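User: Design a sequence. Structure:
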């Protein structure tokens, strides 16, 4: 069990989460996922660190800190969209957004729409799209207009 291994090395979970710029609850979830072998739910850099800890019995606290510094992962975690998405899904399992995300991940129903939205995203961030870009985002604007005028 990883939690016990960290305790043996005198590494507090709060301390580890601070090193990695991850919230303490997220760190607990990652450790729980690691111990239950749900590796896909763990950020890949965190997973590498956990494997390093688990596979090196002689490693100590200093070795773990050195590993983190050498991997230069600290900044990567603060903006990690995967972590934020997992946290959102776990904290809001019944929200419409979570249901949509789950549908996107488990089916191909919205693939064409998703690909279109990803393609137009840079244009949507522009303050003044050119005429070609305006034409590209026209279906998006039309859909938004229809949704805003739609009564449930």
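Assistant: Done.
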């Amino acid at each position: 069990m990883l939690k016990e291994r960290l305790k043996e090395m005198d590494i507090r979970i709060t301390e580890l989460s601070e090193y990695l710029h991850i919230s303490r609850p997220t760190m607990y979830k990652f450790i729980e996922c690691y111990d239950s072998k749900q590796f896909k739910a763990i950020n890949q850099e965190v997973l590498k660190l956990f494997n390093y800890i688990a596979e090196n019995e002689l490693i100590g606290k200093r070795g773990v800190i050195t590993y983190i510094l050498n991997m230069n992962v600290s900044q990567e975690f603060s903006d990690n969209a995967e972590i934020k998405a997992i946290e959102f899904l776990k904290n809001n399992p019944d929200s419409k957004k979570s249901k949509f995300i789950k549908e996107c991940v488990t089916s191909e129903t919205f693939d064409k729409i998703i690909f279109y939205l990803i393609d137009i995203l840079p244009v949507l961030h522009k303050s003044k799209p050119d005429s070609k870009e305006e034409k590209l985002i026209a279906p998006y604007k039309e859909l938004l207009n229809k949704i805003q005028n739609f009564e449930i």
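The CA atoms of residues 100 and 106 lie 10 Å apart. Residues 110-152 form one domain.
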